[in-house]
Amino acid sequence: MTTMTTPSGLHAEALRSFWPGGTGPQNYVDGAWTTAAVYAETFDPSTGNTFAVVPETTKDEVDAAVRAAARAQPAWAGLTMSQRAEHLSALKAVLDAKGEELALLEAIDSGNPLPSTRRDVGLALRYLTEWPGLALSATGRFTRAHADGISLISAEPYGVVGKIIAYNHPMLFAIAGMIYPLMAGNTMVIKTSTQTPVATLALGEVIDGVLPPGVVNIVSGGADAGDALVTHPQVKRLAFTGSEATALAIQKRLSVSGMVKHFSAELGGKNPFIVFADADVSAAVDAAFAGLSFHISAGQSCQSTARILVHESIISEVEAGLATAMRRLTLGPAYEDATEMGPVVSREHARRIEEFIRGGIDEGARLVVGGGTLKSGGYFIEPTLFSDVTPSMTIAREEIFGPVATLMPFATEDEAIRLANDTRYGLSAAVWTNDLDRALRVSAQVQAGYVWVNDANRHYPGSPFGGMRASGIGREETVDELFGYTESKSVNIRVRSA
Ligand code: NAD
């Protein structure tokens, strides 16, 4: 792109392509942009400057969005699956036409480089193409339970789904996250991420006139807006993507409010990347580097395999390869052509990562690359690699969610498995070996919902994504997700004999 103009000129131009009247971002409720009582600033992490002012949605405003979704739901559920799929298919053309503008908004707001946000638009288009068709299989079941009795079992929508989104790929999460709930006959209120709301709000423009009013409503805000959605009596199904701490806070809140709700959670990870001595080391280094997602989101990825466990005989080679790749990365503003890695999302998060780095040094890990920040207004952390990391160190235990990787040696297969599982999380894992038996043994024993063998980072269509242990509840991206947005209803019929 595109820095023909100043960042502030670029900001204004990017916002005007969705809100031409100069109003700036608004909530999208009941088929219209709606003004809010309170607004809050959102920042461009590449400069630290204000990017936009967005609604800090109040409880009453969340209530209005839920009521709009509830009004729209019976008619939406009354459509056939094919009709719902046609609506979603129609979104593709608008998303495609607006894709470059959305990618720019997302790059400014999140700090993810433009190639990464363009990739998110591409993924969203692919999911809109592939997933609605898969949902057509959700036709219910029939059983003959008794000689004189049958059951008809249907998959019923919950009604209104409340979706709460994390900050790292918010627009993609919003689009991907609406496909199965809508196909199942639900309507939705989506709450954007606190830090990165702008491109998600702009999806109002994509939806407008394509989905009936009220079917998808989008509001911004932080914990209070999220809480209003969580505790709204008309929201029976909650879908959450974010941190373990917030998931626990939501579960506690539901419990003390006396509310029983269906709740799915896509949470964090401390994901192992295991390299055995017989692996193709050069390919493993390339994959380990790709698995860090430094170039996609400065390492702010739930599936980032940043805990790299390497057989002691090849760890120097892997360390040298990763160090070279990290030193070559060009850091810069998300919207500049030369940028290969952008900033992290906020000043607070940058400070948190700096604390982890200081802690790693204090606890005795060896800093191989990086560890510093860039002298600029933006929130830039250098790609950072620690070696000689031991299992008790904080950097080996906590999700850092930034451009920091740790290298740890192991001697035996048993030790590799023990180290891999020495975490409360269980989202993803990668196993690198040319021994098929070992690959199958280790992948069976690693406690993770999504395991790659001789690969990393890629999602395989048809494979459900989600975490074990503290990494979550539920699975996404397949019909598992579709059925997660339905509850079964059995109609049991006694058949009288003639
Ligand atoms: P977060 O938990 O801070 O916030 C997530 C969302 O919850 C935001 O929209 C926020 O406004 C909302 N929220 C905060 N407090 C709330 C409350 N009390 N009630 C209701 N809503 C509330 O997470 P984050 O910093 O945005 O995202 C980073 C985390 O998300 C990391 O742990 C990462 O691993 C995880 N993540 C997981 C996946 C996955 O698919 N497993 C994907 C992306 C991110």
Q: Name the average pLDDT.
A: 96
How far from one another are the termini?
76 Å
Coarse shape: globular
Bound molecules: nicotinamide-adenine-dinucleotide
Q: Please list the strands of the largest sheet in the order they lie side by side.
A: 14-15-16-13-12-17-18
Percent helix: 40-55%
Got a strand count?
20
Write down the CATH class of the largest domain: Alpha Beta
Strand content: 15-25%
Most strands sheet: 7 strands, mixed
Number of domains: 2
CATH architectural name of the largest domain: 3-Layer(aba) Sandwich
What structural category characterises the helix and strand content? alpha/beta
Q: Radius of gyration, Cα only, in angstroms?
A: 23 Å
* Unreliable residue stretches: none
What would you give as the CATH superfamily of the largest domain?
Aldehyde Dehydrogenase, Chain A, domain 1
Q: Give me the number of helical elements.
A: 16
CATH-assigned fold name of the largest domain: Aldehyde Dehydrogenase, Chain A, domain 1
Question: Can you walk me through this structure?
Answer:
The chain has 498 residues and is an alpha/beta fold. The protein has two domains: 7-267 and 474-487, 3-Layer(aba) Sandwich (Aldehyde Dehydrogenase, Chain A, domain 1); 272-460, Aldehyde Dehydrogenase, Chain A, domain 2. Helices cover 40% and strands 21% of the residues. The chain contains 16 helices and 20 strands. The chain has helices at 7-16, 59-78, 81-110, 114-135, 170-183, 198-207, 223-230, 244-256, 281-291, 294-297, 315-328, 347-362, 394-397, 413-420, 436-445, 479-484; strands at residues 27-29, 32-34, 39-44, 49-55, 141-146, 149-157, 160-164, 187-191, 216-219, 235-241, 262-266, 272-275, 307-311, 366-369, 384-387, 404-410, 428-432, 450-453, 472-473, 486-494. Strands 14-15-16-13-12-17-18 form a seven-stranded mixed β-sheet, with helices on both faces. Strands 9-8-7-10-11-19 form a six-stranded mixed β-sheet, sandwiched between helices. The protein has a three-stranded antiparallel β-sheet with strand order 5-6-20. The longest helix has 30 residues, at 81-110. It is globular and about 75 Å long. The model has no long low-confidence stretch (mean pLDDT 96). It binds nicotinamide-adenine-dinucleotide (NAD). Residues 164-168, 191, 193-194, 222-223, 226-227, 230, 241-243, 246, 249-250, 266-269, 302, 399, 401, 427, 467, 472 line the site of nicotinamide-adenine-dinucleotide.
